[in-house]
Sequence to fold (291 residues):
Amino acid sequence: MKIDPLHPSFAACVLDIDLSMVTKSSGSQEIIQAFEQYGLLVFPNQSLTSEGQLRFAKLFGELESFPEATMQKDSEKVYNVSNIDASGNIPTVDDIQILNLKGTQLWHTDSSYRHIPALASFLMALELPDSPESGDTEFADMFAAYDSLPDELRTRLKGRHMVHNYEYERIYVEPRLPPIPASEKALVPPVTHPVLRYHPDRDRHSVYITANVGGEIGGLNQDEGKKLHKETINFVTQPRFVYRHQWSLGDLLMWDNRRLLHRVLPYPIDTQRRKMRRTSVSDVAPPQIKL
Ligand code: OGA
Ligand code: MN
Fold:
């Protein structure tokens, strides 16, 4: 296993490893160590099947289920982040599947709308747009952002919690999406998480904020909350904290959702195929503050 850093504060490319051969006793400990250190690992030239990707992800925690009916899935644990429908075609731009992808274009961290969000996500490129650089994915390092917070902003954020609501995406981001069925809503009621959170495995803090599932900050009125939310998102996603990944087929990316934000950059969604396969594993506890 050979590790090449990709950015001054995080992200590394991992070469000379076949992920289909990794087991608990062979390779996974080195990967966990690199994952904790770099937060984002890029494994090029992988050939994992859906089952292989599930098996690999399972080495790092409990697989997340995606029970929501609006998600495009192979199975309840394999989420296809893709503009290709079940019959293999690109739906029209106002199709639910396409509208639903809009949330991934906003800075976020996976499953933050759950009481226990995702610890790690695994995303494999299966089909990519032809246009160079379109559909790149950006990652921002919230350890570095936290360490650079101006005192004034840090003070305003300290002790604050943000409301993460799966439904927010429907109401504010893409109102053309139909309301979430009551049965689905019952699975994912709004939750709150600390905006400044503690990362127990690294003994560091990160900024935990998303633009796709919320903007309300507890204890502030709507205007003040939205202003603080926007100011924080703008600060923490400055180019100096960001690594931009230009995908090649067969890349598998593994990232730490406790530490990074990410978003996909726009691509010609109505004409060019893009198919990514995502699996995630849950964290072991809700986001914490240091006690
Ligand atoms: C996701 C996601 C980014 C991408 O699956 O949650 O953010 O590049 N995907 O498709
Ligand atoms: Mn995501």
The domain at 2-282 is CATH 3.60.130.10 (Double-stranded beta-helix). Helices lie at 28-38, 50-58, 96-100, 142-148, 151-157, 168-173, 182-187, 222-236. DSSP finds eight helices and 15 strands in the chain.
